[in-house]
Design a protein that fits this description.
Layout lengths: L11 H5 L28 E5 L6 E5 L3 H18 L3 H13 L8
Antiparallel strand pairs: 1-2
Length: about 100
C-alpha cells in the first residue's frame, strides 16, 4: 500500500512554506467616465432694474480677485477718513500682496 501524504506538514521546511494562492481571475476593465459637462460662460454684464426709479442698470461683471481688491480700497478709504493709520498700513500690505496699489488702476 502506498504511503498517504498528510495535510499537516511534517518537516520544519514544509512548515515555513506558505501555501500557493490561486491566481485571481482577470477583471474586466473599468468603463471610461463620461466627459464632464461644459460650464456655461458667465455673462459679461449683469442687468438689473432699480426698484425705486425703474431705471435699467447694466453692471459689468468683475472677477473675484478684482472685487476683493476693490473692497480693500474701499476699506482703506474708510480708515483714512477716520485716521486709523495702523489699519491703513495693514490694508496697504494686503494690496501689495495682491499686486495692487491704493489708487484705482
Amino acid at each position: 500500500m502506498a504511503a498517504r501524504k498528510s495535510a499537516v506538514p511534517s518537516t520544519p521546511s514544509e512548515q515555513n512554506q506558505t501555501p500557493e494562492e490561486p491566481e485571481a481571475p482577470e477583471q474586466e476593465p473599468m468603463p471610461e467616465e463620461p466627459p464632464a459637462p461644459e460650464e456655461p460662460e458667465a455673462p459679461e454684464a449683469e442687468t438689473a432694474a432699480n426698484v425705486r426709479t425703474g431705471e435699467i442698470v447694466v453692471t459689468p461683471r468683475t472677477s473675484l480677485e478684482a472685487a476683493y481688491v476693490d473692497a480693500l480700497r474701499r476699506e482703506r478709504a474708510g480708515y483714512v477718513t477716520y485716521g486709523r493709520e495702523d489699519r491703513v498700513a495693514t490694508v496697504d500690505a494686503e494690496l501689495k500682496r495682491w499686486g495692487a496699489t491704493a489708487e484705482t488702476d
